[in-house]
Amino acid sequence: VVGDLRFGRDISLTSYDDDWHFVDEDVPVQASGIRCVEGDLTITNTTSTVDLSPLANLAVIGGDLDISINDQLTTLTALDSITTIGGDLDIYRNAKLTDLAGLDSIPTVGGGRSINNNAD
Questions:
Q1: Which residue in 40, 81, 111, 116 has the most C-beta neighbors within 10 A?
Q2: Bridge partners of residue 78, in order along the sequence
């Protein structure tokens, strides 16, 4: 994917760059062919996404990875193919996310890491 990719709903944003590719709902099965996102990958404010299995083939994120405010997300294990995150890694306010398995195999994060306010 050239540019940034967003899954979910974000009603607080009112303008977007031309290079954003939007999917207004949860992570679709059609995402299974994605191997690289050159920009940021944002998964935010989904209501029924339980896991990220459609992204199991994803290997490289050139920008930030933001996974936040997902009501039903319980696991990140499908992200274990990621080898590089070029920017920040932000994971917060995922009410049912109890562990970070799937992220432990990512050898390179180019920016900061912020992981907080997920399930206990």
A1: 40
A2: none
Considering the entire predicted model, what is its pTM?
A: 0.87
With beta carbons less than 8 A apart as the criterion, state whether 58 and 36 touch.
yes
pLDDT at residue 14 in the model: 46
Q: Which two tokens stand for residue 86?
A: 């070029």
Using alpha carbons, list the distances in angstroms from residue 27 to 56, 69, 110. Answer: 12, 14, 25
Please give the single-letter amino acid code of residue 42.
T
Residues 6+ apart with CB under 8 A from 79: 52, 55, 56, 58, 102, 103, 106
Q: Name the H helices within the chain.
A: none
Alpha-carbon gap, residue 110 to 65, rounded angstroms: 11
Residues 28-43 pLDDT 10s:
767 888 999 999 999 9
| Other CB atoms within 10 Å distance of the CB of residue 107 | 8
